[in-house]
Amino acid sequence: MSFPVTALILAAGKGVRMKSDLPKVMHPVLGRPMVQYVVEAVRRVGAEPVHVVVGFGRDHLIRALTPLGVGFVDQTEQLGTGHAVQCFARAHPTPPERLLIVCGDTPLLSAETLQAMVDLHRRERPALTMMTLTMTNPGSYGRIIRNERGEVVAIREAKDCTEAERQVREVNLAIYLFEGAPLYERLFRLSNQNKQGEYYLTDLVELLARDGHRILTVAERDEVSTLGINSRADLALVARLLADRLLAQHMANGVSVLDPRQTWIEPDVTIGPDTVIWPGSVLTGRTTIGRRCTIGPHAVLHDATLGDGVTAACCRLAGVSVPDGTTVPPFTARPEGLR
């Protein structure tokens, strides 16, 4: 049975701590804008169409993401997450059947947990299903407030919590699957009467609960997958985590990576079994490497195609094809003049 889900990715913020003219979500993680991983994650659970809320640096985002077939919604002033969704509603006055809302700065977002959300929502048909996490030290995360029956009745932003609410360890991960009609009926009732002067999307939880609507949660078990990027240090950490995942996949597929900590492989690289990757290798773009190759040490390959049994050490190759059985001479740079 058809279960339409529209996705909305919040990506309008500047990311002040990045100290950059580039929009935060455009900073690359393993050669891709971080927001591209989020687009791919929501599509893996069947969300379509996908819309991206843009604001700061909108032209960068539109140029980069238009080839992915997403739509765009302008948020010219960043007045909070609730305001971002209001901008979507103004641009699309007819409510979608369901709206999956996620943040664009979470490239490790788990498609498996998203799928669990969609499956639960399909079975139970609540007004809202959202993702939560139980943390030892919740810090600045918004707290999930439940009543005596265990039902979700509110989300309280950390800055607005009472002392008792700060002790709650279940937190909001800002990933929501709304039924479209009840969302739109309450969206413009949001208020900015809070310490930040913003329109919080989280306030919709309390509005839905007061009106007797059911709100369900799915627990994320892997705290790593929830990491957002707010600084250059966060960017490096998430890139390393994602790189480790990719390296583990290659090794599980029969590739020997002699020193994973000194090897960089981007997501669109393919490598055949029994190939050995030596330290200092950097494999980027759509590089394709055949079976039984020896790569490195210190090989830099971008958009290169290597046949079976190729040896390539201490070289830089970009956009070239190397036949089976070739030994690339050390210090080769192709095309000519590549530095």
Identify the notable features of this structure and list them briefly.
25 strands; 8 helices; UDP N-Acetylglucosamine Acyltransferase, domain 1; Spore Coat Polysaccharide Biosynthesis Protein SpsA, Chain A; elongated; alpha/beta; 339 residues; 2 domains; seven-stranded mixed beta sheet; five-stranded parallel beta sheet; 25% helix
Explain how this protein is built:
The chain is built from eight helices and 25 strands. With 339 residues, the protein is an alpha/beta fold. The radius of gyration is 23 Å and the shape is elongated. The mean pLDDT is 94. It has helices spanning 34-44, 58-65, 81-91, 111-124, 163-166, 180-187, 203-210, 232-252; strands at residues 6-10, 28-29, 32-33, 50-54, 71-74, 98-103, 128-134, 143-146, 152-156, 170-179, 215-219, 256-257, 264-265, 270-271, 276-277, 282-284, 288-289, 294-295, 299-302, 305-306, 311-312, 315-318, 321-322, 327-328, 333-334. The chain folds into two domains: 6-226, Spore Coat Polysaccharide Biosynthesis Protein SpsA, Chain A, CATH 3.90.550.10; 254-334, UDP N-Acetylglucosamine Acyltransferase, domain 1. The strands form six sheets. The protein has a seven-stranded mixed sheet with strand order 5-4-1-6-10-7-11, with helices on both faces. Strands 12-15-18-21-24 form a five-stranded parallel sheet, with helices on one face.
